Amino acid sequence: MVMESINPPLSHDYNKILSQYTRKTITHDENINGSTNIQECYHDQELPLIDLVGLTCDNEVERVKCKTEIARASSEWGFFQVINHGISIKLLDKMRREQIKLFNASFATKSTCGLLNNSYRWGTPTATSPENFSWSEAFHVPLTKIPDQDCYGEFDSLREVLVEYGAAMQKLAKLLAEVLVKNLGGKMEEFENMISEKTCFLRLNRYPSCPLSPKITGLVPHTDSDFLTILHQDQVGGLQLIKDSKWVAVKPNKDALIVNIGDLFQ
User: Fold this and answer.
1) What family name appears in the similarity comment (predicted)?
2) Which pLDDT value is given to residue 129?
3) Which end of the chain is more exposed for a tag (fewer CB within 10 A), N or C?
4) Is residue 186 part of a domain?
5) Sheet strand arrangement including 201-206
C-alpha cells in the first residue's frame, strides 16, 4: 500500500529554484555580494486591541472613542486586533477543524479534484530565487463560489461552515469599512464595489514544517494589495509585520481577529 503525502512538492520546487539560482550567481560574479540584508529584529510592541462593543453601545462618547481608536490604529499601524467582533468562538473553532481536515487530504486530492473552484495553490510559481519562495499552501476562494455544491466533493460538512463563516466575515468587513470610509469623509456607496461579494475572497492558509532551512518563510515579506483583510490567526504564532522600519511579532490572541488595511484602501 502506497501512502500518499498530504504535503505539496515544495522541496522539489525549492531545490529546483536553488539550483538555478546558484548557477546564475556563479556565472554573474557581480551579483555574489549584491544580496539585500534583511535585519531580523523582532520587538515586543503590542498590536492595538480594540473592543468593538463600543460601536454599538448607547453611549455616543463611547461610540466616537471606538471609531477614533480604529482610525488611529489604521493610520499608525495599518493593523489592529478586534474583540467582541460578533463572530462566535464556536464558529471559528468549527472553521479551523474543517480547514485541518481539508489540508490533511492527500496532495493529489487537493490539487486535482476541483475543490473550492480549483483554487488550490502551493509554493511560489513566480519565484526566481530562494528569497522569493513561500513554503505554504492555500485555497483562495471567491465568496460568490462558496455556496456552490460542486466545489466540495467529499467534503460535505465544509460547505455549511464556509457559508456561515463567509457571511459573518463579510458583515464584519462592511462594519469596519464603513467606520474607516466615514472617517475619511467618504460615502459607503463610493466603495460598494470593493466590499461586495463579487470582489471578496476567502483564503485558507497552511504552513507545513520545512525540513530544509529555518530561514525559509511561510510567506515572503509582502503587502496586501486589496482593500481590507480580516485574519483569524491560530495559536501557533508566526505572524510578523513592520512598524517604524522594525519587525514586530504579533502574539496570538484566541479572542481576537486581526484587521489589515490593504494597499487599495491606503
Assistant:
1) Belongs to the iron/ascorbate-dependent oxidoreductase family.
2) 87
3) N
4) yes
5) 120-122, 137-142, 201-206
Q: Give pLDDT tens digits for 74-89.
A: 999 999 999 999 999 9
Residue with cell 492555500: 138
Question: Rounded CA gap, 219 and 239, in Å?
Answer: 10
Q: Report the relative pairing of strands 228-231 and 257-261 from DSSP bridges.
A: antiparallel
| Global model pTM greater than 0.90 | no
Indicate the pLDDT class of residue 42, thresholds 50, 70 and 90.
low
Count up the domains in the chain and report the number: 1
* 3-state SS class at 206: strand
User: Is 98:161 a contact under the CB 8 Å cutoff?
Assistant: yes
For 13, 14, 30, 32, 178, the CA distances from 27, given in Å and listed in that order, are: 21, 20, 9, 9, 54
Grid cell of 110 as nine digits: 487537493
Question: Which set of grid coordinates corresponds to residue 106?
Answer: 492527500
CA–CA separation, 265 vs 216, rounded Å? Answer: 30
What is the reported pLDDT for 24? 57
Please report whether residue 266 resides in a domain: no
50-59 confidence digits (pLDDT tens): 999 999 889 9
Residue 7: other Cβ atoms inside 10 A:
15
For residues 103 and 171, what is the distance between their CA atoms, to the nearest angstrom?
26
Determine, yes or no, domain membership for 163.
yes
